[in-house]
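Review form for a predicted model. The reviewer records the input and the model, then writes brief findings.
Reviewer: anonymous (R2)
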Amino acid sequence: MPWNKSSWLWCLFCCLLCTKVFAQEITLRVERLNQAGEESKYSAFSIAEDAKGFLWFGVENGLEQYDGYGFVGHQPFAEAGVPANPADERVTDMALDPEGRLWCATPEGVRVFDPLSNKRLLQKKLLPLEHTIIDKIIPTSAGVFIFSWDGRCFHFQNEIQSISLPGEGKISNIFEINNKIWALGNDAGFYTFQNGQFSAGRQTRCPDLLVVPSLLAQMPDTEGFIWAVYDNGLYRLSPEAGKCEKQFSLNDLHPKVLHVDPFGMIWIIDDRNKIYNFSSFDKKLQPVKTEGEIVMGHAPEIFQKGDLMWLLSDKGIYKIQRFGYDFREYEMGGAAPVQVLAQSENNVLFIKNNDIYFYENSSGNLQAHPKQSLTSLIPLAEISSATADEKGNWYFIGESFDVVFCNNNLDNCKTLLSKNKIANILNVLPDGSRVWLGTKAGLFILKDGVVELFEYPAQEHDLSGADIQVLKKARAGGLWVGTKRQGLYYINQEGKIDKHFYTNYTKINDVKSRTRVFIGSIKALCETTSGIYLLTGKDIKRLLPETSRFQVLPILREEGLEKIEGIQAQEGFLWLTSPQAMFRVDTIDFIEKKYVFNLNIEDSLSTYKTILSSDGQLFITTSTNTRSFFPGKQPGAGLPPSINITRFKKSGEDQTEAATQIRMGKAVHIYPGDKDFSFEFALSDYGIPEANQFYYKLEQSDMSEEWKAAGTSRQVTYNARVLSAGQYTFSVKSIASNQRAAREVLEVPIIIHEVFYKQLWFFFLVFALVSLIAYALYRYNLNQAIAYERLRTKIASDLHDELGSSLTRINMYAQLLKSGVFSKKPEKATEALDNIASDSREVVSMMSDVVWSIDARKEKMSDLLDRMREHVDQMLSPRNIHYEFLADDFPAEKKVDLNIRQNVLLIYKESINNIAKHSDADKVEVQLKNEKGIFIMRVKDNGVKPSTNKNGTRLGLKNMEMRAKKIDATLSIQNGQGYEVTLKRKAFC
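Model under review:
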């Protein structure tokens, strides 16, 4: 039905009167880190958050890391071994670049620091910034922009260069919005950064800025706008459109700090230390109530982390915590509750007091609808529920009718099903060209005006007669069907039942015993990436489709919530409504611990409905009004906090380097000499850090362990001596004071080394040593046996060589005498007897020499010298031959090898014997000495006659040369002007 003029006027009137938007009153709690009189101790000039979620403060003499409990590490920028000058170490500004590095402005230039490894990456100044005082640093994806106090701007990517705007304008600030770099000039114009320079500007079209006032502060928000405080007011600037919108005039307000938080609130601190809040909802600036006083000196900085703001000044560091939430309230006439709440892709539909209202996501406006076409078919009071298809068309269900179809404007409606054709329709779900109808009698399909009962051949999957409670589209494109008694079904895109969940055995609350879980009556359903959440009776269950297992959310019983009627899903959170209140439940590891968040809605929710609209706004209808807010823009709704190791000790001593290695994901090594080791950890949530709860466990690679509660204690110590060697994993997780879980479980690999005598290499070493000793003993015994055999062979050889010929001659003479050959020649017999006697004496002498040489008691050098003196005296003195025996001062106790002493003695005796028997000498000189590491034995006489007979020359010389060769010696014999024998070899004593 077309609208007339009165319809439009009536709609406009309703729009003006029926909606009211307001922000709930917000209170700030101010906490000062330092006490009065300690300003210098905790004075800070800049602040930044590292990739782990921990804060770094730029202070007078470097950087300080803060973990919520205190400052855990100081990092000066002075060179190693060079005394630090505090005036040069002050960090006046710093920022984190996309690679996780901290860029710090100091009086000595720009320094770069890696928070993860605690290493200073850039110690020297970035030329040409010498003698330049740095004002601020802005890292972007296109490089780092550095501002100096004199208004110059530098750009650093691979090298540093000065950069400016076209013309004579100066850059006031740099912003990165949607991966695009913008510069705000002092002419209130915007310039884009491309190819290393800024392009021509785009002047903002704002009458108040035609004559550019002084810019006091500016900051971007999360929507792509720039909020700027000029001396004539607060403006919202749009770089893309080149437009601006003045929000309010400053009047007598003198802003000192401007801050835009992630929740869309504008915060201003004036020169009187007062805090003001500007809400874009009601366009009003109002003072904010604070619990605690703020005292500022120099122009401070505000940093936002979650629902906390950090205010820096030379008077101290302030932690400002925000309480309260930004609600919109919609008054739609009368105190009656909203009877129908539904949504399409672009709108949210309300039916209240027989009136229809639409909330448009694009404009944020609530409008009343004339509803003539719809009311011509059915009374609005009879509508029980509504739903929309992909095109925005609406389907209405009522008590006295079945289904009515309307287009998106509700100006063309028709009845699809007549009254009682399908009794007790509970819900409708459009699905392309067909419509699913959930009833108490089962599941039906409406297509081309024909209704058919959905049936499936398999008996266990027959939905006919099932009491359908919930119909919900699945993310995979199919359909979830929740029933009252038959569990949960999944119908795929081909229209066939693919899965059926009714009951299972599973773990509940991480208890190891397997417990039977029944799904129960399904009242509501929502699907997220973490699972399918079902509201069933007094429980909320999470279904993990890939494992077909259910987990029970125990929060309902623990909080005493008797009745949960509404459940909405937002990634990472569930929003639950009950007659008592609304709760936000963090779905991360919820089965271990509850994470509940009370929204403090004052009025009763005894009659309510909830919907999460397509633009992310959560609508709550109560018995008296309707409210909405953006869950993703509420305090604490950002990323969960991180947990980190702040200190590591071994045997009670800090291991700074080891703590750094832990933060970099490397293993901890515990050695046998370490008595114990301990970890200290912290959670990057600073609301009420002393209330953060910690859980830990130490697991060996092949064994699991249950979580242990550390409470609020942040340190765990282990006795290294009671832990067996091997690989372990130390795990710690935490729950923040606002009941939010840590982003992830922190795991630290630990390697406990075995004592050396239990290590494999030691067993191999012992085995090798034992084997070596056994082999050495074997070789020793073998060598002894070989030596014994050689000695026997040598004795036999010596006896044979030395005595054989003499004994043969004795035997021959004896045989001749016995045969009577010399009976007629007595003189010949006498000569034979003399020869026998002479040979016998020689045999005895040789036997004596052999026995002496192998006598272990005669192995010293003194024994050899005595034997040589004795022999020369026995052989030469009876023949009146004068001799002189000269020997160096040899070590008397030095043992001489058997082979050496025997052959030296025999060569010596052969030389003396030759002189005694054959020489006509009357004087003999014997000399023994060590000269330059060479042993020399020289025997010399003064005879003219040769000292060897003709027959003995060859044999004696041969024997002497053979013996010299046995001891690696050289032998020289001269027989002419005297007889001289010289023996040389390497010194042996």
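Findings: Residues 760-819 form the longest helix (60 residues).
Further findings: Confidence is low (pLDDT under 50) at residues 1-24, 506-514, 591-598.
Recommendation: see findings above.
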